[in-house]
Amino acid sequence: MASKTMAYCSWLRKRFLNKVNQPGNYIVFKHLNIATRLAIGFGVVVLLLLFMSVTSVQRLASVNDGTRMIYEDRYPKIVLANEIIKNTLDNGREARNVLLAVSEDEADNSRKALNVNRAEIVEGMAKLRKLLNSEKGGQLWKEAADKRDALDTRYDKLFALARDDKKAALEYLKTELAPTNTAFWKALEELEKFQGGLMADSAQHAYDTYDSTRSLIITLSAIAVALALAIGAWITLSITRPLKQAVAVANRLEAGDLTVKIDSSARDETGQLLQAMRNMIATLTQVVGEVNGGAQALAGASEEVSATAQSLSQASSEQAAGVEETSASIEQMTASISQNTENAKVTDGMAT
Predict the structure, then answer these.
(1) What DSSP designation does 22 have?
(2) Per-position DSSP letters for 278-305, written without gaps between them
């Protein structure tokens, strides 16, 4: 039984995972947020436990009903029938003692005891009839009651014969009263056997209910465990797979790889995380592109500035050369002027 249950639970777990992992179903499940998945998982397990609890309580109630039926219905009828049989057998002995008594007091005591038993038998038969609730039980009681009525008339006749003719009374005891007495308690014995059979059936029903309840609880417990494992695996994988993908993407981003692609259409929290990382990669790629463009523009501007500086440097050099030439010309002019001045002085001296 246990091996079959475990095999069935293993099959159920695989079937559940296969069902969940089917493309259409997986698309539906992966769009559920994590809170909903956890609620579904715990909800299924709680429903199974609730079903187990309700079923167990119902089965235990059935076992309790069977036990109460045995203790409060079947067994009291058997006890009551046995008490009537005991009183009937005692009456057989008391009837014999009436005839075998050596004194009137002894015979009178036996008659009193017999009459007490007769009253208890009448009371017991009335109680027994009220307890019987089956058609066959009622029929068996009716047969026993008819034999009891026949037996009662024979007791009265026996007592009358015992006062007048003990020999005739003894013969009457052997041929009439004893067989009727035996027929009565045997009829009660049949009723007792019938009630004993009902009690055995009730006991067997209680045993069967216990066995079936135990098997059902074991099966449901195994199914609950299998489903809990399957749902736990499903929820775990649905969370860890996207997280592993996110970690792998983060590692590649850390290495400076902006060409990483993220393929995910999930709309849960992990799907939102991957979508945010996809947007981040797109933004980083755009920013890096803009930075590269700015760097290239800056490099071009630097080259232009360098060329302008070189042009200015060359112009400065040429201007410096011109200044030097102008300075030399001025020096030459100054020398010529000085020379002319000297010549003028000489000429002026010669004139004077």
Answers:
(1) S
(2) HHHHHHHHHHHHHHHHHHHHHHHHHHHH
Q: How many Å apart are CA 162 and CA 169, to the nearest integer?
A: 5
In angstroms, rounded to a whole number, what is the distance separating the alpha carbons of residues 132 and 188?
Answer: 13
**Nearest alpha carbon to residue 113 among 84, 135, 91:** 91
Structure token pair of residue 3: 């091996």
Locate the domains of the chain by residue range: 2-246
Tokens in use for 128?
């027994």
**CA-CA distance, 172 to 126, in Å (whole number)?**
28
- Both structure tokens of 60: 């235990």
Retrieve residue 237's tokens.
């994988």
Choose which CATH entry (1.20.120.450, 1.10.10.60, 3.40.630.30, 1.20.120.1730) describes domain 2-246.
Answer: 1.20.120.1730
Return all residues near 52 (Cβ < 8 A) that are at least 6 apart: 217, 220, 221, 224
Cα atoms in the 13 Å half-sphere on the side-chain side of 224: 18
For 73-103, write each residue's pLDDT tens digit: 889 999 999 999 999 999 999 999 988 888 8
| Distant-in-sequence, close-in-space partners of 154: CB < 8 Å, separation ≥ 6 | 172, 176, 177, 180
Q: What is the DSSP letter of 151?
A: H
Angstrom distance (rounded) from CA 164 to CA 152: 19
- pLDDT tens-digit map of 195-242: 999 989 988 888 898 888 888 888 888 888 888 888 888 888 877 887
Q: What are phi and psi of 102, to 5 degrees?
A: -95, -5
Q: Which tokens hold the place of 179?
A: 């067989």
